[in-house]
Design a protein that fits this description.
The chain is of the alpha+beta class. It is built from three helices and five strands, in the order βββββααα. Helices cover about 30% and strands about 25% of the residues. It has a three-stranded antiparallel beta sheet with strand order 4-3-5.
């Protein structure tokens, strides 16, 4: 029987390699909007964050997502990310 490959991605804050299902994808769309991609298939530039409230807070303070996505991110996006982690 064929073994199914588990997709691994790297958290931009902790640099940990984790399974895709343990991460949240944040995307800058071609229309220059920032969205949270729960499907993992949205079109655009993506960055992954670990599903952990401390990681989200650290990302907000260090502005690492803004550097990865080359766009200013509104606080409402971070608020929504924090809700997803609870």
């Amino acid at each position: 029987m064929k073994i199914k490959k588990i997709p691994m991605r790297t958290c931009v804050v902790t640099k940990e390699k984790l399974e895709k299902k343990d991460l949240i994808r944040v995307v800058r769309t071609p229309e220059a909007k920032v969205i949270i991609d729960l499907t993992g298939k949205a079109n655009g530039r993506g960055a992954y964050l670990k599903k952990d409230i401390e990681v989200i807070k650290k990302a907000r303070l260090s502005k690492i997502l803004e550097r990865h996505l080359d766009i200013e991110i509104e606080s409402s996006v971070y608020d929504e990310l924090e809700k997803l982690c609870n």
